[in-house]
Structures are given as structure tokens and as C-alpha cells.
TrEMBL record:
A molecular function (GO) term: ethanolamine kinase activity
SUPFAM superfamilies (UniProt xref): Protein kinase-like (PK-like) (SSF56112)
A biological process from GO: phosphatidylethanolamine biosynthetic process
Keywords: Kinase, Transferase
Protein name: Putative choline kinase 1 isoform X1
Length: 257
């Protein structure tokens, strides 16, 4: 396990199951990663049998697990998150770009800290907060908190050019869809005309006076978490994040309705 000396960000070439774990068992590489992360957090995991692994529901593109182990000083157990990437997701998303975005956001206090990463997953800080519901967004206080956080998110000074990636990303998806769909499915989903519709939308929606910001592009209540004690909002899931005209503010207003 190679961990940077000054932080918890680690990198290791290992592969862990993407279809769940056998109860009570951990791959050797994951044991090593857990022990290294625990040491960085001031704990010692000598007995891997004391580590609890619980699968969490609600994730669409990954398998997510909560990992607990008893701390050496008797405090409540330490918690971290294991995220295993879903099979085939790289067909639609650039995983390297997503990792770079996640790391940058993590270092600047947006989302959970990255503790360790490997080719098909990562270990993250466990956020002690609850996922919002649709009803939460209709509460004025919560809506104000989310709006303020969203404005902060849009102003993130991310590295690299401030290019709008949405349109070419959709065109790439159309190309992939055409390559894997049967002629019948391609006709049913009108893939032959979608590209023309994308070109039309890009022309109509891309105007010089519109502000470009760093957008989440998957803003829904399941990707928003609220710490009840501090009343702070955390935006999670960075898979679709990119620079874009800030239509997202309008989307947020639609979510409130």
C-alpha cells in the first residue's frame, strides 16, 4: 500500500469484487488497505474479524459499503466508506476525469475525503449526515442551505480549461449507443435524429452572455446530505461534474416545485 506521507490519499493496484463480498471475508489487498488507512487515522486493525462490512442501498452506478472497526481508545467505532465501481460504467464516463475531480473537491472541503484508491474502487471518509428527501427540499430553511451550497459549488476554481463538455459528452453517448444497439432498437429510440436534436439544443442554449460555472449535473435530493448538528450541506457524487452554463440553478428551482 503506497500512501503519501502528508495525507491519506493512497494508490494501489488491486482489484476487489464488483458483485459483492462473501460474508466474513475480505480480499487480502483490501485488508492491507484498511490497515494502512486505520494507521493513518490513529488506529490499529490487528483482528480483521472485528471489522464489520455493511452494504448500503441507494447507489445506482456503484456498490457502496460501510466499514466499521473498533478504535483502540474505546471511542465509538471508526467508520469509512468503500465504493466499488460498477461494471461497464467507463463506457459512458471517463473514470480518470471523475477521480481527478473527486480528489480536487475532496482537498478543498467539498464532499468526503479520499482515503485510498485502486483501479475499480476507493475508500472514502464516512459522512455523518443524512441523505435529503424530496420533502426536505420543500422546507424553506433546507432549500436556502442547498441554494447557498450550490452557489459555492458553481464558483469552485477547478483546474483545467473552463470548457463546456456536455454536448460532446452526449454525442459520445449517442455514438456508443449506435455501436451496441440493434437496428431495431436504434430506430425505436430514434438515434438517427438525436444528434440533430443535440445540435439544435446546443445552438439555442449556448449564448455568450450566459455564465459558466462548475456544475454537478446530477443535482437531486439523493446526492445532497445534511448534517443535522451543524446544518451544513454536502454535495456528493462527482461522476457528471463539469463546467457548463449554469442551468443548474433553474433545475434546482424545478426540484422545489
Amino acid at each position: 500500500m503506497l500512501l503519501q506521507q502528508s495525507s491519506l490519499y493512497g494508490y494501489k493496484k488491486m482489484t476487489i469484487p464488483s458483485k459483492g463480498f462473501i460474508e466474513g471475508s475480505f480480499p487480502d489487498e483490501l485488508k492491507e488497505a484498511l490497515q494502512s488507512v486505520a494507521a493513518e487515522l490513529g488506529d490499529v486493525v490487528d483482528d480483521i474479524g472485528a471489522v464489520e462490512l455493511t452494504r448500503l442501498t441507494g447507489a445506482f452506478t456503484n456498490e457502496v459499503y460501510q466499514i466499521n472497526w473498533p478504535t483502540k481508545n474505546g471511542d465509538p467505532s471508526q467508520k469509512i466508506l468503500l465504493r466499488v465501481y460498477g461494471d461497464g460504467i467507463e463506457v459512458f464516463f471517463n473514470r480518470d476525469n471523475e477521480i481527478r475531480t473527486f480528489e480536487y473537491m475532496s482537498r478543498h472541503g467539498h464532499g468526503p475525503r479520499l482515503l485510498c484508491r485502486f483501479p475499480n474502487g476507493r475508500l472514502e471518509e464516512f459522512i455523518h449526515a443524512r441523505t435529503l428527501s424530496a420533502a426536505d427540499l420543500r422546507k424553506h430553511e433546507t432549500a436556502v442551505l442547498v441554494a447557498a451550497k450550490l452557489r459555492e459549488f458553481h464558483n469552485l476554481d477547478m483546474p483545467g480549461p473552463r470548457n463546456v463538455l456536455l454536448w460532446n459528452r452526449i454525442r459520445d453517448w449517442i455514438r456508443v449507443a449506435k455501436s451496441i444497439c440493434s437496428p431495431r432498437d436504434a430506430e425505436e429510440f430514434r438515434l438517427c435524429v438525436i444528434k440533430e436534436e443535440v445540435n439544435m439544443l446546443e445552438k439555442q442554449l449556448s449564448q455568450d452572455h450566459q455564465e459558466i460555472g462548475f456544475c454537478h449535473n446530477d443535482l437531486q435530493y439523493g446526492n445532497l446530505m445534511l448534517d443535522e448538528e451543524t446544518r451544513t450541506i454536502t454535495i456528493i457524487v462527482s461522476l457528471l461534474c463539469s463546467f457548463l452554463k449554469i442551468y443548474e440553478s433553474s433545475l434546482f428551482i424545478c426540484l422545489l416545485c
